[in-house]
Amino acid sequence: MSTLKFRNITASVDDPVDTWPFEGILTAVERGTLPDWRRLAAAIRADPWGPVAQQVLEAVELSRPYGTAELLTTIVERARQHAAAAERDQVADDIRGFVARSGLTQQDFALRIGTSRSRLSTYMSGKVMPAASLMIRMRRVATQAQALRGKPGQDRG
């Protein structure tokens, strides 16, 4: 249970954190307790680049609260790192799906998208992120190869 009190704002501490105005976020950063910071952390993990994360960083920069500044900044940084890693995993998953859906070997797929098999492997593992234009090309090659496989008498070339 929070002992936090808002003054001069219409929001309630019981409202979802993402509905609090900046003054509410600032109050939680400056005078909140562990339960309040946990609520902020949950909102930040849900949307690491969203408004709550941005407002928490602004509040920390504005007030420099002793002890909580590092804690809250670290929460934002870790949430963003975790989200970026999940996004890399999703891109790698999508690429593996394109290759599988195409029915081509990795070597043939790489040649069709204009790269080497070893570079394709780095994309498939998530070690390297391809450009957006290359993702579009991969999707197109996978769709075209899949369509050709489905048409009898057509060359797979």
Write the layout of secondary structure elements.
Blueprint: H1 22-31, H2 34-46, H3 51-63, H4 68-102, H5 106-113, H6 117-125, H7 132-150
What structural keywords apply?
disordered C terminus, 7 helices, 157 residues, single chain, elongated, 0% strand
Report on the structure:
The chain is mainly α. It has 2 domains: 17-65, no CATH class; 86-149, 434 Repressor (Amino-terminal Domain) (Orthogonal Bundle), CATH 1.10.260. Helices cover 68% and strands 0% of the residues. The protein contains 7 helices and no strands. It has helices spanning 22-31, 34-46, 51-63, 68-102, 106-113, 117-125, 132-150. 26% of the residues are buried.
Based on the structure given, which CATH architecture of the largest domain is correct? Orthogonal Bundle
Q: What CATH first level of the largest domain would be assigned?
A: Mainly Alpha
Q: With helices defined by DSSP (H or I, 4 residues minimum), what is the helix count?
A: 7
Largest sheet: none
Mean pLDDT: 92
CATH topology of the largest domain: 434 Repressor (Amino-terminal Domain)
Quaternary organisation: single chain
Rg, please? 24 Å
Domain count, please report it. 2
